Amino acid sequence: MEFSSKLLENAVYEMSQLPGIGKRTALRLVLHLLRQPETQTHQLAQALLAMRDTIKFCEKCHNISDVALCEICANPNRDESIICVVEDIRDVMAIENTSQFKGLYHVLGGKISPLDGVGPQDLTIHSLVEKAKKGVVKEVIFALSSTLEGDTTNFYIYKQIEPYNIQTSTIARGIAVGDELEYADEITLGRSILHRIPFENSLKN
């Protein structure tokens, strides 16, 4: 792809680094921005910079937040004895949209995947185990995607918290094997939370 401008080429290259964006789509997006009022492009750039420079991770659950403690963890009406373990903020948003879960979350920041160089030390598993040690948590719900990496991560965490006499459950398999949680419809996902099963039972399947 030949460019008449190095500035345009650089912008297209950076845009094409985003997931699912190829060079042609990147070019279309960049040319669209060029056609928009200058203030709109500046607002987009400023919003991205502000997000990248000032966004925080909740000190309690590791969810993305504007402040030290996210709105969910700061809500006194949430049940802190139940923790739902998810991969990232997209899964928190998906479950919250069902209005079926009233506990707290723990965002791992990924899944164990040796092929991708992601081990337990790269996730927030340690802080989850520390929560388990304190005795406040009564149940941990595994809500990771039904993939090999998700199941591996579930089992690893299960073994780590097993000594602390905590009930473990997993969302019901209304979510098809191999599906990503964020793409499940709200009714199916809500039912999966409500009809969760003991984690030990899932190991027998």
Describe this structure in a few short sentences.
The chain is α/β, with parallel strands linked by helices and 205 residues long.
Structure, described:
The protein has 205 residues and is α/β, with parallel strands linked by helices. The protein has two domains: 6-54, Helicase, Ruva Protein, domain 3; 72-202, Dna Topoisomerase Vi A Subunit, Chain: A, domain 2 (3-Layer(aba) Sandwich), CATH 3.40.1360.10. It is 43% helix and 13% strand. The chain contains nine helices and seven strands, in the order αααββαβαβαβαβαβα. It has helices spanning 6-15, 23-35, 38-54, 71-74, 89-96, 125-133, 148-161, 186-194, 199-202, and strands spanning 56-57, 64-65, 79-86, 103-107, 139-142, 167-170, 197-198. It has a five-stranded mixed beta sheet. A two-stranded antiparallel ribbon has the order 1-2. β3, α5 (89-96) and β4 form a beta-alpha-beta unit. It is elongated and about 65 Å long.
Structural class: alpha/beta
What is the mean pLDDT? 89
Number of helices: 9
What name is given to the CATH topology of the largest domain? Answer: Dna Topoisomerase Vi A Subunit, Chain: A, domain 2
Helix and strand arrangement:
Blueprint (H helix, E strand, L loop, with lengths): L5 H10 L7 H13 L2 H17 L1 E2 L6 E2 L5 H4 L4 E8 L2 H8 L6 E5 L17 H9 L5 E4 L5 H14 L5 E4 L15 H9 L2 E2 H4 L3
Parallel strand pairs: 3-4, 3-5, 5-6
Antiparallel strand pairs: 1-2, 6-7
Helix pairs in contact: 1-2
